[in-house]
Each structure stands twice: as structure tokens, then as C-alpha cells.
Amino acid sequence: MMHKILLVEDDESLGYLLSEYLKMKSLDVVWAKNGKKALEIIEHDLFDLIVLDVMMPQMDGFTLATYIKKRHPDMPFIFLTAKSMKIDVLKGFSLGAMDYLKKPIDEEELVTRIMAHLSRLEKTGLASTQKEIIQIGNYEFDSRNHKLLINGKEIRLTARENELLKFLVQNKNNLSSHKDILVRIWGNNDYFNRKSLNVFITHLRKHFEHDPAIKIENIHGRGFILKVEE
Questions:
Q1: Where does this protein bind DNA (predicted)?
Q2: Which residues contact 141 (CB under 8 A, 6 or more apart)?
Q3: Fewer CB within 10 Å: N-end or C-end of the chain?
């Protein structure tokens, strides 16, 4: 399966060059030309690895990385930047970067480093597009493509429905607390987000209505349990 990479680079010439070179190396590349655009893309898609520039207009790479770690903590990223001072390198790693590459960089070295990181991620089971389709009762859950499949019918999931279902599946038949869900997916455990969570739980219950063996139980005051009768 082709690995999916998000390249976030505001320099038109460099962005085009790197994007085309990575595609030549059989990588599926999406190029975002600024941090805000990358933010929109991340809300609707998953990637095996993100390559981030730091100095960008509208939203810099450090700010974007902070958002990624809060909303998608398992989504790996590396920095590719001209900011080479020690304080910047340390900040990059403190934000959770797997690597910090300094410009200018040889394209072959970039590909070699990307492939090394992807190989390491696969061994730990964290490469997002390598995850198998998950069976939930009579449904198939394709988290990469944000959809459920049952009896040939496709049900599209929003980005937030997709993330919520992934969280519940990871804790299948066990309690997922309100706090854990909200901090992980909404980024904040407050009253209004709890109301929003309840709405999305209702959406998921509706999606699973074709299989009575699947239930999302509300444990009052504590959280939810995705129960699947075997």
C-alpha cells in the first residue's frame, strides 16, 4: 500500500520540487501551501507522516504541530526548516517531532529519512494507512477513508465521527470516560463539548442501527462503552 504524506511548505518552488520528487518515489503526497490549509486537510484525512516547514504565513509550523499533537496525538511529523538554531531544534523535538531536518536538504536524504521513519512506525503499528479495516459486528470500519460498510452499503463519516469511533473501538467493551474522549478529540473537557459529544454519539448509534449486536451504552456521569456481542 502506498504511504500517504502531507507536505506543508509555503515556498512554491521548493514545495513543487519536493512534492514531485516524493511522488516519483511512490509516495502519495498532498501538498498544503500554508499552515491553515494543512489544518483543514488534517481535519478530513489521515496521513502516515507529515513534513512541516516552520516559517510560514498565517500559521507557523510550531503552532500547527501543537494542534496536531492535541487533536491527533498518534499522527507523526517531522520538521524541514531553515531555522537551525539550537533553541529551535530543541523546541521542535519538545513538540513531539520525530526528526528535525535543516534546509537546504538533498531530496534523496529526505526520502531516505522518511522511509526510515515509516518503517519504524510500521513495526510499532502506528502507520495510519497501514491499519487493517476493523470488523465491528456486521460492519467494516475503514478509518483511513472515513467510512463504514455493511451489506454493500457505504456510510460516510465526518472527521469527528471517525475519530470518536476510533477511540471507542480502541476501548471496545470497556469504559471510555467523558474526560478522556473530550481531551483527546475535542481538546477540552467542558460543558459545551460534552453536549457536542452526546450529539456525535447519537450519530454513531444511528449509523449502527442495522446490527442489533452493536450498542453504545451511556454509563451515567462516567462515559460510554462500545459493546459488540460476539
A1: 131-228
A2: 133, 134, 135, 148, 165, 169
A3: C
Backbone CA torsion sign across 110, 114, 117, 123: negative
Q: Indicate the burial class of 64 (C-beta count within 10 angstroms; 0-12, 13-18, 19 or more).
A: buried
Determine the Cα–Cα distance for residues 205 and 83; give it in Å rounded to an integer.
48
User: For residue 189, what pLDDT band results from cuts at 50, 70 and 90?
Assistant: confident
Alpha-carbon span 8 to 51, nearest angstrom: 6
63 or 84, which is more confident: 63
Q: How many domains does the chain have?
A: 2
pTM: 0.58
Q: Which of 77, 108, 130 is the last residue of a domain?
A: 130
Q: Say what the pLDDT of residue 143 is.
A: 83
96 and 109 inside one domain: yes
pLDDT of 193: 84
Residue length, the chain?
230
pLDDT of residue 120: 77
| Domain that includes residue 193, residue range | 134-228
Same domain, 16 and 124: yes
Euclidean distance between CA atoms 25 and 108, whole angstroms: 10
